[in-house]
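Reopening this ticket.

The earlier resolution said the output was attached, but the attachment link was broken on my side. Pasting everything inline this time so it's all in one place.
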Amino acid sequence: MPAGSAPTPSTATATAPGRGSPEPSAPRLRQRTPVRARISGPSAGPAAAPRRSGVALVASLLGFTVITIDVSAVNIALPAIRDSLDGGMSGLQWVVDAYTLMFAALMLSAGALADRTGARRAYAWGIALFTLASLACALAPGIGVLVAARVAQGAAAAIVMPASLALIRQAYEDARARARAIALWTVGGSVAVAAGPVLGGLLTDSAGWRAVFLLNLPVGAVILGLLVRVPRSPRRPAALDLGGQLTAVLALAGLAFAVIEGGHLGWTSGPVLGAAALALAAGFAFRVVEARHPRPMVPPAMLGDRRVAVPLAVGFAVNAAFYGGIFLLGLYYQQLRGMSAIAAGLMFVPMSAVVTATNLVSPRLAERVGRRPVIVAGQLVFAGAMLAMLPLAAHTPVWLVLVLLLPLSIGGALAVPALTALLMDVVPQDRAGTASGLLNSFRQTGGALAVALFGGLLAGADGGFSLSGMRIGLVAVAALLLATTALSRLLLPRG
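Inline output:
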Protein backbone atom coordinates (compact mmCIF):
# COMPACT_ATOMS: atom_id res chain seq x y z
CA MET A 1 0.00 0.00 0.00
CA PRO A 2 1.44 3.43 -0.86
CA ALA A 3 2.72 5.49 2.02
CA GLY A 4 0.18 8.20 1.49
CA SER A 5 -2.96 6.13 0.83
CA ALA A 6 -6.15 7.53 2.26
CA PRO A 7 -7.83 5.52 5.02
CA THR A 8 -10.70 3.32 3.92
CA PRO A 9 -13.59 2.07 6.01
CA SER A 10 -12.26 -1.48 5.96
CA THR A 11 -8.78 -0.57 7.19
CA ALA A 12 -10.22 1.76 9.79
CA THR A 13 -12.39 -1.05 11.12
CA ALA A 14 -9.59 -3.58 11.10
CA THR A 15 -7.32 -1.36 13.14
CA ALA A 16 -9.83 -0.89 15.96
CA PRO A 17 -9.06 -3.85 18.24
CA GLY A 18 -11.41 -4.87 20.96
CA ARG A 19 -14.58 -3.62 19.29
CA GLY A 20 -17.35 -5.98 18.32
CA SER A 21 -18.25 -6.44 14.67
CA PRO A 22 -21.34 -7.79 12.94
CA GLU A 23 -20.93 -11.47 12.07
CA PRO A 24 -20.90 -11.08 8.28
CA SER A 25 -17.82 -8.80 8.39
CA ALA A 26 -15.65 -11.28 10.29
CA PRO A 27 -14.22 -13.05 7.21
CA ARG A 28 -13.15 -9.74 5.68
CA LEU A 29 -11.37 -8.74 8.89
CA ARG A 30 -9.44 -12.01 8.90
CA GLN A 31 -8.43 -11.42 5.26
CA ARG A 32 -7.14 -7.92 5.96
CA THR A 33 -5.12 -8.81 9.05
CA PRO A 34 -1.94 -9.68 7.08
CA VAL A 35 -2.12 -6.29 5.33
CA ARG A 36 -2.38 -4.49 8.64
CA ALA A 37 0.43 -6.55 10.07
CA ARG A 38 2.61 -5.76 7.08
CA ILE A 39 2.00 -2.02 7.42
CA SER A 40 2.36 -1.52 11.12
CA GLY A 41 3.34 -4.91 12.53
CA PRO A 42 2.10 -5.71 16.04
CA SER A 43 0.94 -2.14 16.54
CA ALA A 44 -2.69 -2.75 17.39
CA GLY A 45 -2.17 -2.40 21.13
CA PRO A 46 -1.21 0.68 23.16
CA ALA A 47 2.36 -0.59 23.62
CA ALA A 48 3.01 -0.09 19.90
CA ALA A 49 2.19 3.65 20.03
CA PRO A 50 5.68 4.69 21.21
CA ARG A 51 7.24 2.58 18.44
CA ARG A 52 5.07 4.26 15.80
CA SER A 53 5.86 7.66 17.28
CA GLY A 54 9.56 6.84 17.21
CA VAL A 55 9.45 5.79 13.55
CA ALA A 56 7.58 8.99 12.65
CA LEU A 57 10.18 11.03 14.53
CA VAL A 58 13.12 9.31 12.81
CA ALA A 59 11.53 9.76 9.36
CA SER A 60 10.80 13.42 10.08
CA LEU A 61 14.26 14.00 11.49
CA LEU A 62 16.02 12.44 8.49
CA GLY A 63 14.02 14.50 6.01
CA PHE A 64 14.56 17.74 7.89
CA THR A 65 18.26 16.96 8.16
CA VAL A 66 18.81 16.18 4.48
CA ILE A 67 16.99 19.27 3.17
CA THR A 68 18.95 21.42 5.62
CA ILE A 69 22.33 19.91 4.79
CA ASP A 70 21.83 20.94 1.17
CA VAL A 71 21.95 24.59 2.20
CA SER A 72 25.17 24.63 4.23
CA ALA A 73 27.04 21.85 2.36
CA VAL A 74 26.55 23.63 -0.96
CA ASN A 75 28.11 26.78 0.49
CA ILE A 76 31.48 25.00 0.80
CA ALA A 77 31.14 23.56 -2.72
CA LEU A 78 30.53 26.99 -4.31
CA PRO A 79 34.13 27.69 -5.39
CA ALA A 80 34.34 24.23 -7.00
CA ILE A 81 31.01 24.82 -8.75
CA ARG A 82 32.29 28.17 -10.03
CA ASP A 83 35.43 26.57 -11.44
CA SER A 84 33.51 23.65 -12.99
CA LEU A 85 30.57 25.54 -14.48
CA ASP A 86 32.02 29.02 -15.00
CA GLY A 87 29.67 30.78 -12.61
CA GLY A 88 30.53 34.22 -11.19
CA MET A 89 29.48 35.56 -7.77
CA SER A 90 25.97 36.26 -9.09
CA GLY A 91 25.66 32.67 -10.34
CA LEU A 92 26.84 31.30 -7.00
CA GLN A 93 24.29 33.41 -5.15
CA TRP A 94 21.53 32.03 -7.36
CA VAL A 95 22.69 28.45 -6.69
CA VAL A 96 22.03 29.13 -3.01
CA ASP A 97 19.00 31.41 -3.29
CA ALA A 98 17.12 29.48 -6.01
CA TYR A 99 16.74 26.77 -3.38
CA THR A 100 15.98 28.93 -0.35
CA LEU A 101 13.62 31.33 -2.11
CA MET A 102 11.46 28.60 -3.61
CA PHE A 103 11.64 26.87 -0.24
CA ALA A 104 10.39 30.03 1.49
CA ALA A 105 7.67 30.96 -1.00
CA LEU A 106 6.07 27.54 -1.46
CA MET A 107 6.09 26.68 2.22
CA LEU A 108 3.14 29.03 2.64
CA SER A 109 0.98 26.66 0.57
CA ALA A 110 2.87 23.53 1.56
CA GLY A 111 1.63 23.83 5.13
CA ALA A 112 -1.95 23.87 3.88
CA LEU A 113 -1.10 20.96 1.55
CA ALA A 114 0.11 18.92 4.53
CA ASP A 115 -3.17 19.64 6.33
CA ARG A 116 -5.31 18.99 3.24
CA THR A 117 -3.75 15.77 1.93
CA GLY A 118 -2.45 14.38 5.20
CA ALA A 119 1.05 14.92 6.56
CA ARG A 120 2.35 11.45 5.64
CA ARG A 121 1.25 11.63 2.02
CA ALA A 122 2.60 15.17 1.54
CA TYR A 123 5.86 14.13 3.17
CA ALA A 124 6.27 11.15 0.85
CA TRP A 125 5.62 13.31 -2.22
CA GLY A 126 8.14 15.89 -1.05
CA ILE A 127 10.89 13.35 -0.33
CA ALA A 128 10.41 11.64 -3.70
CA LEU A 129 10.62 14.96 -5.59
CA PHE A 130 13.62 16.09 -3.54
CA THR A 131 15.48 12.88 -4.35
CA LEU A 132 14.85 13.22 -8.09
CA ALA A 133 15.82 16.90 -8.07
CA SER A 134 19.05 16.03 -6.26
CA LEU A 135 19.91 13.64 -9.09
CA ALA A 136 19.27 16.44 -11.60
CA CYS A 137 21.61 18.75 -9.64
CA ALA A 138 24.35 16.12 -9.68
CA LEU A 139 24.03 15.72 -13.46
CA ALA A 140 23.76 19.44 -14.30
CA PRO A 141 26.00 20.37 -17.29
CA GLY A 142 25.87 24.13 -16.67
CA ILE A 143 25.06 26.78 -14.09
CA GLY A 144 21.61 27.44 -15.60
CA VAL A 145 20.54 23.80 -15.35
CA LEU A 146 21.89 23.62 -11.81
CA VAL A 147 19.91 26.68 -10.75
CA ALA A 148 16.74 25.20 -12.31
CA ALA A 149 17.29 21.90 -10.49
CA ARG A 150 17.84 23.82 -7.27
CA VAL A 151 14.44 25.47 -7.81
CA ALA A 152 12.87 21.97 -7.95
CA GLN A 153 14.82 20.97 -4.84
CA GLY A 154 13.54 24.02 -3.01
CA ALA A 155 9.94 23.27 -4.03
CA ALA A 156 10.30 19.74 -2.67
CA ALA A 157 11.94 20.95 0.53
CA ALA A 158 9.00 23.31 1.02
CA ILE A 159 6.66 20.32 1.09
CA VAL A 160 8.93 18.28 3.37
CA MET A 161 9.49 20.90 6.08
CA PRO A 162 5.94 21.58 7.36
CA ALA A 163 4.85 17.99 6.75
CA SER A 164 7.72 16.69 8.89
CA LEU A 165 6.73 18.90 11.81
CA ALA A 166 3.04 18.05 11.34
CA LEU A 167 3.97 14.34 11.51
CA ILE A 168 5.54 14.95 14.91
CA ARG A 169 2.52 16.94 16.05
CA GLN A 170 0.35 14.00 15.00
CA ALA A 171 2.54 11.37 16.66
CA TYR A 172 2.86 13.05 20.09
CA GLU A 173 -0.32 14.15 21.85
CA ASP A 174 1.35 14.86 25.21
CA ALA A 175 2.66 18.46 25.23
CA ARG A 176 5.84 17.63 27.16
CA ALA A 177 6.71 14.64 24.95
CA ARG A 178 5.93 16.74 21.87
CA ALA A 179 8.23 19.53 23.04
CA ARG A 180 11.07 17.06 23.48
CA ALA A 181 10.40 15.51 20.07
CA ILE A 182 10.40 18.96 18.48
CA ALA A 183 13.66 19.69 20.28
CA LEU A 184 15.22 16.57 18.74
CA TRP A 185 13.84 17.56 15.35
CA THR A 186 15.39 21.00 15.78
CA VAL A 187 18.68 19.44 16.87
CA GLY A 188 18.79 17.49 13.62
CA GLY A 189 18.28 20.62 11.55
CA SER A 190 20.76 22.71 13.50
CA VAL A 191 23.41 20.01 13.45
CA ALA A 192 22.83 19.59 9.72
CA VAL A 193 23.38 23.30 9.12
CA ALA A 194 26.57 23.27 11.19
CA ALA A 195 27.89 19.89 9.99
CA GLY A 196 26.90 20.49 6.36
CA PRO A 197 30.05 22.48 5.59
CA VAL A 198 32.22 19.67 6.98
CA LEU A 199 30.42 17.10 4.86
CA GLY A 200 30.44 19.42 1.85
CA GLY A 201 34.18 19.95 2.15
CA LEU A 202 34.93 16.25 2.51
CA LEU A 203 32.77 15.29 -0.45
CA THR A 204 33.95 18.12 -2.67
CA ASP A 205 37.64 17.41 -2.13
CA SER A 206 37.34 13.62 -2.29
CA ALA A 207 34.67 13.03 -4.95
CA GLY A 208 33.76 16.41 -6.46
CA TRP A 209 30.90 18.82 -5.79
CA ARG A 210 28.36 16.56 -7.52
CA ALA A 211 28.73 14.04 -4.66
CA VAL A 212 27.08 16.59 -2.34
CA PHE A 213 23.82 16.02 -4.23
CA LEU A 214 24.24 12.29 -4.89
CA LEU A 215 24.34 11.67 -1.13
CA ASN A 216 20.63 12.56 -0.98
CA LEU A 217 19.58 9.55 -3.07
CA PRO A 218 20.09 6.73 -0.52
CA VAL A 219 18.78 8.92 2.31
CA GLY A 220 15.57 9.56 0.37
CA ALA A 221 15.10 5.83 -0.19
CA VAL A 222 15.48 5.12 3.54
CA ILE A 223 12.91 7.77 4.45
CA LEU A 224 10.34 6.40 2.01
CA GLY A 225 10.88 2.95 3.51
CA LEU A 226 10.27 4.26 7.04
CA LEU A 227 7.05 6.01 6.01
CA VAL A 228 5.44 2.65 5.27
CA ARG A 229 5.41 2.05 9.04
CA VAL A 230 3.95 5.46 9.93
CA PRO A 231 0.15 5.57 10.45
CA ARG A 232 -1.86 7.41 7.84
CA SER A 233 -2.49 11.06 8.64
CA PRO A 234 -5.96 12.58 8.87
CA ARG A 235 -7.01 15.05 6.22
CA ARG A 236 -8.23 18.44 7.34
CA PRO A 237 -9.91 21.19 5.34
CA ALA A 238 -7.31 23.68 4.12
CA ALA A 239 -7.79 25.83 1.04
CA LEU A 240 -5.04 26.10 -1.55
CA ASP A 241 -4.75 29.83 -2.15
CA LEU A 242 -3.25 29.96 -5.65
CA GLY A 243 -3.53 33.73 -6.01
CA GLY A 244 -1.73 34.31 -2.73
CA GLN A 245 0.91 31.75 -3.62
CA LEU A 246 1.64 33.29 -7.02
CA THR A 247 1.96 36.82 -5.65
CA ALA A 248 4.21 35.57 -2.82
CA VAL A 249 6.56 33.88 -5.30
CA LEU A 250 6.70 37.02 -7.46
CA ALA A 251 7.35 39.28 -4.48
CA LEU A 252 10.20 37.17 -3.12
CA ALA A 253 11.74 36.56 -6.55
CA GLY A 254 11.65 40.27 -7.39
CA LEU A 255 13.15 41.22 -4.05
CA ALA A 256 15.92 38.63 -4.32
CA PHE A 257 16.77 39.66 -7.89
CA ALA A 258 17.01 43.30 -6.84
CA VAL A 259 19.29 42.54 -3.89
CA ILE A 260 21.50 40.02 -5.72
CA GLU A 261 21.87 41.86 -9.02
CA GLY A 262 21.95 45.32 -7.43
CA GLY A 263 25.47 44.62 -6.24
CA HIS A 264 26.57 43.60 -9.75
CA LEU A 265 24.49 45.64 -12.20
CA GLY A 266 24.12 48.75 -10.05
CA TRP A 267 21.28 49.74 -7.76
CA THR A 268 19.84 52.21 -10.27
CA SER A 269 20.02 49.91 -13.30
CA GLY A 270 16.80 49.20 -15.17
CA PRO A 271 16.54 45.47 -14.35
CA VAL A 272 17.14 46.10 -10.65
CA LEU A 273 14.60 48.93 -10.41
CA GLY A 274 12.11 46.82 -12.39
CA ALA A 275 12.59 43.88 -10.02
CA ALA A 276 12.13 46.14 -7.00
CA ALA A 277 8.92 47.54 -8.50
CA LEU A 278 7.68 44.00 -9.16
CA ALA A 279 8.39 43.03 -5.55
CA LEU A 280 6.43 46.03 -4.22
CA ALA A 281 3.48 45.47 -6.56
CA ALA A 282 3.34 41.73 -5.87
CA GLY A 283 3.60 42.35 -2.13
CA PHE A 284 0.65 44.75 -2.25
CA ALA A 285 -1.31 42.30 -4.40
CA PHE A 286 -0.56 39.52 -1.91
CA ARG A 287 -2.04 41.58 0.89
CA VAL A 288 -5.19 42.34 -1.14
CA VAL A 289 -5.65 38.71 -2.20
CA GLU A 290 -5.26 37.42 1.35
CA ALA A 291 -7.71 39.98 2.73
CA ARG A 292 -10.39 38.94 0.22
CA HIS A 293 -9.82 35.19 0.12
CA PRO A 294 -12.41 33.20 2.13
CA ARG A 295 -9.68 30.82 3.37
CA PRO A 296 -6.31 32.55 2.92
CA MET A 297 -3.09 30.57 3.22
CA VAL A 298 -1.84 33.20 5.67
CA PRO A 299 -4.81 33.75 8.02
CA PRO A 300 -4.97 37.40 9.16
CA ALA A 301 -6.08 36.28 12.63
CA MET A 302 -2.95 34.15 12.99
CA LEU A 303 -0.70 37.03 11.99
CA GLY A 304 -2.62 39.31 14.34
CA ASP A 305 -1.63 37.18 17.33
CA ARG A 306 1.60 38.58 18.75
CA ARG A 307 2.56 35.09 19.97
CA VAL A 308 2.71 34.15 16.28
CA ALA A 309 3.87 37.41 14.69
CA VAL A 310 6.88 37.90 16.98
CA PRO A 311 8.26 34.34 16.50
CA LEU A 312 7.98 34.90 12.73
CA ALA A 313 10.09 38.07 12.97
CA VAL A 314 12.59 36.33 15.25
CA GLY A 315 12.84 33.36 12.90
CA PHE A 316 13.57 35.74 10.00
CA ALA A 317 16.37 37.48 11.92
CA VAL A 318 17.94 34.30 13.32
CA ASN A 319 18.15 32.63 9.93
CA ALA A 320 19.48 35.81 8.34
CA ALA A 321 22.32 35.71 10.84
CA PHE A 322 23.04 32.00 10.57
CA TYR A 323 22.71 31.42 6.83
CA GLY A 324 24.39 34.72 6.09
CA GLY A 325 27.22 33.78 8.45
CA ILE A 326 27.70 30.33 6.90
CA PHE A 327 27.75 31.80 3.37
CA LEU A 328 30.22 34.49 4.43
CA LEU A 329 32.55 32.11 6.26
CA GLY A 330 32.65 29.57 3.44
CA LEU A 331 33.92 32.25 1.05
CA TYR A 332 36.16 33.87 3.69
CA TYR A 333 38.00 30.61 4.36
CA GLN A 334 38.52 29.71 0.71
CA GLN A 335 38.75 33.03 -1.14
CA LEU A 336 40.48 35.26 1.42
CA ARG A 337 42.53 32.71 3.35
CA GLY A 338 43.13 30.29 0.46
CA MET A 339 41.96 27.15 2.29
CA SER A 340 40.94 23.98 0.48
CA ALA A 341 37.32 22.86 0.61
CA ILE A 342 38.05 20.15 3.19
CA ALA A 343 40.07 22.53 5.38
CA ALA A 344 37.26 25.10 5.22
CA GLY A 345 34.74 22.42 6.10
CA LEU A 346 36.78 21.25 9.08
CA MET A 347 36.76 24.80 10.44
CA PHE A 348 33.07 24.22 11.15
CA VAL A 349 33.64 21.12 13.33
CA PRO A 350 33.78 23.06 16.64
CA MET A 351 30.64 24.91 15.61
CA SER A 352 28.84 21.59 14.99
CA ALA A 353 29.71 20.32 18.46
CA VAL A 354 28.60 23.52 20.19
CA VAL A 355 25.34 23.67 18.19
CA THR A 356 24.49 20.08 19.17
CA ALA A 357 25.19 20.65 22.85
CA THR A 358 23.25 23.92 22.95
CA ASN A 359 20.23 22.40 21.21
CA LEU A 360 20.08 19.69 23.84
CA VAL A 361 20.30 22.21 26.67
CA SER A 362 17.83 24.76 25.25
CA PRO A 363 14.53 22.86 25.87
CA ARG A 364 15.48 22.06 29.47
CA LEU A 365 16.52 25.62 30.06
CA ALA A 366 13.23 26.85 28.59
CA GLU A 367 11.28 24.54 30.94
CA ARG A 368 13.17 25.94 33.91
CA VAL A 369 13.28 29.69 33.23
CA GLY A 370 10.60 30.12 30.54
CA ARG A 371 10.75 30.38 26.77
CA ARG A 372 10.91 34.15 26.48
CA PRO A 373 14.19 34.54 28.39
CA VAL A 374 15.77 31.78 26.30
CA ILE A 375 14.59 33.34 23.02
CA VAL A 376 15.82 36.78 24.10
CA ALA A 377 19.19 35.43 25.26
CA GLY A 378 19.70 33.51 22.02
CA GLN A 379 19.19 36.63 19.93
CA LEU A 380 21.51 38.71 22.08
CA VAL A 381 24.23 36.09 21.74
CA PHE A 382 23.67 36.03 17.98
CA ALA A 383 23.93 39.81 17.70
CA GLY A 384 27.18 39.59 19.65
CA ALA A 385 28.37 36.92 17.21
CA MET A 386 27.89 39.26 14.26
CA LEU A 387 29.86 42.01 15.97
CA ALA A 388 32.54 39.57 17.13
CA MET A 389 33.35 38.74 13.51
CA LEU A 390 34.12 42.36 12.59
CA PRO A 391 37.88 42.01 13.31
CA LEU A 392 38.29 39.03 10.93
CA ALA A 393 40.99 39.58 8.31
CA ALA A 394 43.17 37.53 5.97
CA HIS A 395 45.81 36.80 8.62
CA THR A 396 43.66 36.49 11.75
CA PRO A 397 45.05 33.51 13.73
CA VAL A 398 42.97 30.39 13.19
CA TRP A 399 42.51 29.83 16.92
CA LEU A 400 41.09 33.33 17.27
CA VAL A 401 38.70 32.77 14.34
CA LEU A 402 37.35 29.66 16.09
CA VAL A 403 36.91 31.55 19.37
CA LEU A 404 35.07 34.39 17.64
CA LEU A 405 32.69 31.88 16.06
CA LEU A 406 31.51 30.42 19.38
CA PRO A 407 28.65 32.93 19.79
CA LEU A 408 27.52 32.09 16.23
CA SER A 409 27.22 28.46 17.30
CA ILE A 410 25.23 29.22 20.44
CA GLY A 411 22.74 31.93 19.47
CA GLY A 412 20.42 30.17 17.04
CA ALA A 413 20.74 26.79 18.75
CA LEU A 414 19.55 28.43 21.97
CA ALA A 415 16.61 30.35 20.49
CA VAL A 416 15.12 28.10 17.78
CA PRO A 417 13.92 25.10 19.87
CA ALA A 418 12.08 27.38 22.31
CA LEU A 419 10.76 29.48 19.44
CA THR A 420 9.37 26.49 17.53
CA ALA A 421 7.83 24.84 20.60
CA LEU A 422 6.16 28.13 21.59
CA LEU A 423 4.56 28.50 18.17
CA MET A 424 3.35 24.89 18.04
CA ASP A 425 1.71 25.27 21.45
CA VAL A 426 -0.21 28.46 20.68
CA VAL A 427 -1.82 27.27 17.44
CA PRO A 428 -4.56 24.60 17.30
CA GLN A 429 -3.63 21.14 16.04
CA ASP A 430 -5.50 21.57 12.76
CA ARG A 431 -3.32 24.60 11.97
CA ALA A 432 0.01 22.94 12.84
CA GLY A 433 1.03 22.50 9.21
CA THR A 434 0.06 26.06 8.28
CA ALA A 435 1.89 27.57 11.27
CA SER A 436 4.97 25.45 10.59
CA GLY A 437 4.99 26.50 6.95
CA LEU A 438 4.62 30.15 7.90
CA LEU A 439 7.46 30.06 10.44
CA ASN A 440 9.84 28.29 8.12
CA SER A 441 8.88 30.53 5.20
CA PHE A 442 9.96 33.55 7.24
CA ARG A 443 13.12 31.77 8.34
CA GLN A 444 14.13 30.75 4.83
CA THR A 445 13.35 34.22 3.47
CA GLY A 446 15.66 35.70 6.09
CA GLY A 447 18.42 33.31 5.06
CA ALA A 448 17.94 33.94 1.33
CA LEU A 449 18.00 37.72 1.66
CA ALA A 450 21.06 37.56 3.92
CA VAL A 451 22.91 35.52 1.25
CA ALA A 452 21.81 38.06 -1.37
CA LEU A 453 22.99 40.94 0.82
CA PHE A 454 26.33 39.39 1.73
CA GLY A 455 26.98 38.23 -1.82
CA GLY A 456 26.53 41.74 -3.17
CA LEU A 457 28.70 43.26 -0.45
CA LEU A 458 31.47 40.64 -0.54
CA ALA A 459 32.29 41.10 -4.23
CA GLY A 460 35.01 43.73 -4.37
CA ALA A 461 35.77 45.95 -7.36
CA ASP A 462 38.42 43.47 -8.55
CA GLY A 463 36.13 40.48 -8.03
CA GLY A 464 37.93 39.51 -4.83
CA PHE A 465 36.67 39.24 -1.26
CA SER A 466 35.73 42.63 0.23
CA LEU A 467 36.39 42.95 3.97
CA SER A 468 34.64 46.31 4.17
CA GLY A 469 31.54 44.83 2.52
CA MET A 470 31.59 41.94 4.97
CA ARG A 471 31.65 44.33 7.92
CA ILE A 472 28.73 46.39 6.60
CA GLY A 473 26.65 43.21 6.29
CA LEU A 474 27.58 42.04 9.80
CA VAL A 475 26.53 45.35 11.37
CA ALA A 476 23.23 45.35 9.44
CA VAL A 477 22.31 41.83 10.63
CA ALA A 478 23.32 42.64 14.23
CA ALA A 479 21.00 45.67 14.18
CA LEU A 480 18.14 43.49 12.91
CA LEU A 481 18.69 40.98 15.73
CA LEU A 482 18.69 43.70 18.37
CA ALA A 483 15.36 44.97 17.01
CA THR A 484 13.72 41.53 17.18
CA THR A 485 15.21 41.01 20.66
CA ALA A 486 13.36 44.11 21.84
CA LEU A 487 10.11 42.83 20.30
CA SER A 488 10.55 39.47 22.01
CA ARG A 489 11.21 41.06 25.39
CA LEU A 490 8.20 43.36 25.16
CA LEU A 491 5.55 41.21 23.44
CA LEU A 492 6.14 37.51 24.13
CA PRO A 493 4.67 35.81 27.23
CA ARG A 494 7.28 34.56 29.68
CA GLY A 495 5.92 30.99 29.92
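Reporter confirms the inline version is readable. DSSP finds 20 helices and no strands in the chain. The mean pLDDT is 80.
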